[in-house]
Amino acid sequence: MTTYIVRRLLVTIPVLFGIILVVFVVGRLLPGDPCHILLGERATNAICAQFNHEFGYDKPILSQFGDYLTGLTHGDLGKELRTGLPVGDLLISRLPMTVELSIFALLFATTVGILLGVISAYRRNSAVDVATMAFANLGVSIPVFVLGLLLAFFFAIVLKGTFFSLPPAGRLTAGLSVVPLAERWGMEGTSGPIRAVVDFVSNMYTFNGLLSLQWNVFADALRHLILPAFALGTIPLAIIARITRSSLLEVLGLDYVRTARAKGLAEPAVVRRHGLPNAMLPVVTIVGLQVGGLLAGAVLTETIFNLAGVGQALYDAITSHDFAVMQGFVLVIAVGFLLVNLIVDLSYAYLDPRIRLS
Amino acid sequence: MSVVATPAELQVDQLATARPASLWRDTIANILRQRNAQIGLLILATLVFFAVFADQLSSFAPNDVLLGHEDGVKRLSAPCVHALGCPSVRVEHIFGLDGNARDEFSRVIHGARISLWIGFATVGFAIVIGSLIGLVAGYAEGVLDSVLMRTMDIVLVFPSLLLAIAIVAALGASLVNAQIAIGIVAIPIYARVMRASVLTVKENGYITASRALGESAAGLIFRRILPNAITPIIVTGTLGIGTAVLEVAALSFLGLGAQPPLAEWGSMIGLERGHLFTAAHLILFPGIALSMTVFGFNLLGDGLRDALDPRLNR
After folding, report:
1. B161-182 pLDDT, tens digit each
2. Which residue on chain B is closest to A303 by alpha carbon?
3. Does B166 sit within 8 Å of A334, measured CB to CB?
């Protein structure tokens, strides 16, 4: 197993380098130079020359790439063009929101999706099955932004004042605030990777509420996440439900399942012990693939629910040609992808002993 | 030649013979048997009907600002249907008026034209380029194949909508650029599908035979391989139309695609989003139209896949 993980990690290194190269090149291919875009009419040649010198854009392109790689090895993602602040800081303030939203969306999509898929396969061609699959078909057809807006309208306006009303925007109710975990745990003096991790977790408000035992913060942050997570998770949910159903149906038609039935095992036990574990491989693949889609959906979800996450920041960076932010964010996203793929591959090995032992 | 038929000839005529099988006739019959495809075709037929007769069905032009033209006209006014109790003194606007006092029903049904165009043109663009890449990669194999397919892999690594946003940022925000961006992002999918089917088709005896007869590479690719490798592309393409409509609408929603005053559903929703709490009908109607269009194409694509997949024809 260890050699499998090591080999798998070594394979990702060239891919990672390729991604860094592509992001760097694409950033430079975009027309318009950042100086003129940022400063507009104030951008005289002299000012732009100084600006380019300050950010190193006057150096040869290869030397810029070398500087960028050197910076990366020190954990330096460069500086934001507009504010001159480190991109890493922007990431630590924006990424946790998106990660938190994606975690809840994926959790919702996976649990409900697999459950619906199993019920559908178990009661094939019943009314439940037909209804679930119709819902799944419809689910992949509703755009995230339409679903998000309609959910916001229904839960914030139609159900206003009832027990079920939910906030349509923001991360916390006005008046509530989170205390950074670093402050709470007396870590203001520390810096470096540990501090970065603490700050990162601290900006995921539900986790912050849990870790600092502030239940009102936890509950409020969770309430604010329900609608965005629901909107973002619906398409993956529908896809997961369909894959689970078809995969389980295929497995339930195999010989060893017939053997299990023949030896007198009750149907729920057949599905649970012999069907489901063997039907999980395609489901895991699809769940892994959905992570990319979640990020694209996050741009739209964050716009609708007014959440300052990585999607919003990346959208701003792309439309304002901020190379540094774009490179940093895309790199982190790509690393995230690779990590998810790694987890998916490792879970294959866990789910299928044939892969583990070969 | 005798006019009277001999007993032998009569017998041959009266023998029950099966109609010769035809791929397309069988396929169409198969598609029409699928419940999904039936519903999908019905939805799309409705869409085409609205798109064709949009001018006849609406009493107002989609871009007409009605302020000053009608008495008591108000921006964002709710739907008014006489049959449902709206006072007959008011002018009937069955989907209400939008933020610029334009008839929402007219805008929604005119949007059908634009969405159909978006779906077919975007996927058509991606299919043509993607198929060409897939054909060349699958036919050539070797280094060219590796270079082309690894390039496709790199495009696939990036989340599609984010890559599309970057492309639009480079080209400038407009409907055509949004379509190009979504088209480019979809190219690798078609290239992969085409390459895979070319690799299978290429092994057939009739390809070797054509080659032996001296057919040129271009002839082999376009006359022999392409027609036999195109079925999976049609299925993937039909399923891709829904996605393309969805993604172009998302770009328009963000302000990067169709520009006002064009009656495109995504941009209509994006512009009226601020009025969600006072005029939800302006989100609801274009939202339903958009979802149903995507739903229709997805159902048809599913039906087509089931009909064309020989493993399912039992």
Report:
1. 888 888 887 788 899 999 999 9
2. B254
3. no
What pLDDT is attached to residue A343?
82
CA separation for the pair A202, A295 (Å, rounded): 21
Among the listed residues A258, A241, A237, A235, the one whose alpha carbon sits nearest the alpha carbon of residue A121: A241
pLDDT at position B313: 44
Q: Is B246 close to A143, i.e. CB distance below 8 A?
A: yes
**pTM of the predicted model, to two decimals?**
0.85
- Cβ atoms of A233 and A301 within 8 Å: the answer is no
- B301 in A contact zone (CB under 8 Å): no
pLDDT of residue B291: 95
Low pLDDT (below 50) residues in chain A: none
Q: ipTM for the complex?
A: 0.83
Size of interface A-B (CB pairs under 8 A): 105
Residues whose CB falls within 8 Å of the CB of residue A108, separated by 6 or more in sequence, listed in order: A229, A230, A233, A237
- E-assigned strand segments in A209-261: none
| B155 vs A269, more confident | A269
How far lies A127's CA from each of A123, A211, A231, B158, in Å? 8, 44, 25, 39
Q: Report the residue from A30, A143, A297 with minimal CB separation from B249.
A: A143
- With CB atoms and an 8 Å threshold, state whether A146 touches B287: yes
Is B196 within 8 Å of B182 (Cβ atoms)? no
- Residues of chain A positioned with their CB less than 8 A from the CB of B36: 137
Q: Which residue of B has its CA nearest to A28?
A: B170
State residue A356's pLDDT score.
Answer: 66
Helix (H, G, I), strand (E, B) or coil at A309: coil
Q: What percent of chain A has pLDDT over 70?
A: 97
> Using CA atoms, how far apart are residues A287 and A241, in angstroms rounded to an integer?
11
Which residues of chain A are within 8 Å of residue B306 when distances are taken between CB atoms? none
Mutation target vs A (from B267, B291, B302; most A CBs, 10 A cutoff): B291
Chain A residue with CA closest to B39: the answer is A134
Buried b (16+ CB within 10 A) or exposed e, B169-203: bbbebebebbbbbbbbbbbbbbbbbbbebbbebbe
